[in-house]
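Input.
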Amino acid sequence: MQAKRFFCGLFQKFAFANKENVIKLGKRAEGWSRKARMLAFNRRTRDVAFLQRISFGDVSTEIKLMSLNRAADRQSSNSFQIFFSAGEPSGDAHAASLIREIQACDPSALCVGYGGPLMRKAGQIQHYDLTQKAVMFFKSVLGQIAFFRSLYKKTEAYFSENKKNIQAVVLVDYPGFNWWVARAAKNCGIPVYYFMPPQLWAWAGWRIKKMHKFVDYVFTTTPFETKWFQSHDCNVIEIGHPFLEEAKRHVIDSNFLEEIQSEKSPILTILPGSRDQEIKNNFQDLLNTAEKARLANPEIRPMIAAFKESHAETIEEILSRQGVAIPVYVGKTQELIRAAYFALAVSGSVTMELLANRVPTVVYYRVGKIGHFAQRFFRRSRYITLVNLLGLEFFTSESLYFPENQRIIPAYPTERDFDAMLFPEFLTPFDASDETAECLLDLLDPQNYAHCKNQLEILHAHLDPSRNPFQIAAETLLKTSPIAKRNEIRVADVSSPLAESAEIAKINEAETENEKTEIKEDVEKCEEKYIAEEIRIVEQEKKLIEKERQITEQTPNTKSSAASKQESISLKSLAATSKQQPIKKQTLANPAAKEKKNEPSDDEFLFQKASSSLLKKLSSEESNE
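Output.
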């Protein structure tokens, strides 16, 4: 809107008082307000703005302006605009890294859509901060159904209006609303990519039908996830888990880290989750666990990593109400994970971050009794923690899933299941803080702790990708998008730049021929204007000569006659200045050739033609006289 107001202001200020031109330029301003958002840092935009500012009504400048408008139209239609939709805080972090990688590969890419503060900081033009609506389970979703319906309508309208510019839709986790975004995109013929796909292999696998119907490519993060999607005939690209890459990139506050590690007692980092719902359902149990562990071993130092300020305020209120003194930090999650001897975390993708830092962890998740009962019919994976599934696949030959004929899974893990867990996990409808505290105290045993650390080291070394997951995903987007297919852009490997094929040269040649034809048409239109102006000037000169003749006949004054003659001579000299170079009309269609041969430009040629015609008229009038 700012761009629109800026350009409309310029047009109102500089447009000459001709109603037709004002309407025409107003329409052009409206068109350029849309293009300016996509070409804000492009040289063409600055050139057009400058031309519009300095010389409305100059026909030669209008020719250049038409040419630049067409070039900008071609560029905006070829720009790689990507629509992102991420609704989880973890998805916000992953998508932000992917946006930065895409822009590093293709600076002209424009990222828009829904996300969170990290995506906006990475350069996304954000339509709505969807991380504010991170919800789970039916009850929470039903409370937001009116909002999501309205947002879907807006998404559908946006895709319909901009489907020529949106080259890809990238969904990040958050399956509920993202399925509707995918539906709207497919209805408009826009390809859909799922980055960090939902765990269909764990919950309600029949939803694979939606993946087939709405998604073109799936970026998988683990080997077993890749196998599962491939077995269901999906187009899969395995990229590795983003948390393993992001753990390498995190910038750590070394001063804070040294400060909290100054004491030798073991730090228990508590990670209560990134959703309001998780804080509400789980924090009290996590606090009970920490207090019971500290009661058994007073040397333990609990520290809480809050995701945002509102969470910290809620947590501090609970601590104050119960008279418990535990420090709460916001924005220091990475430092607290690095400093931790062990951790107590709510189930989620943060467990991969704990694996990346090889921190022994106990996982806890409190659900309602109805939810706990329902999950026994829908869940197919043996564990709810991704690290445990990866460990089961790597260290044993057992299946990650319950047997197909076992329709109702056990309510709680067996003793054998607990022995196979790298991170002891508790999915429970009641307070299981006693069992959780016992698992934490077991990790204080040096032998148990060393065994757990060793297994985490081995698993991490096995999973650590040799290539950057975000770079693989960015390359795939650039390689498989419609714009890349049209231009035949190939990505050979990680280190090689984008290469152009012979097709690009053909397209460029065709565009050059079209541009030449367009310039010819523009020049012909402007030539007609100049010829009409020439006729008007000739008519005025006729009147001037007639008036001069009448003055000569009425007052045969030598001085007056000489003055009139001098005026005629000055007009001749003005016209004669245009004959310094030969006129070559065929060069109009090739501006580059004019520059090489120092031939006149479009406006110079037309001015010369008008001047030459004027000179001929004056000469014929003089001979008649």
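The first strand starts at residue 81 and ends at 86.
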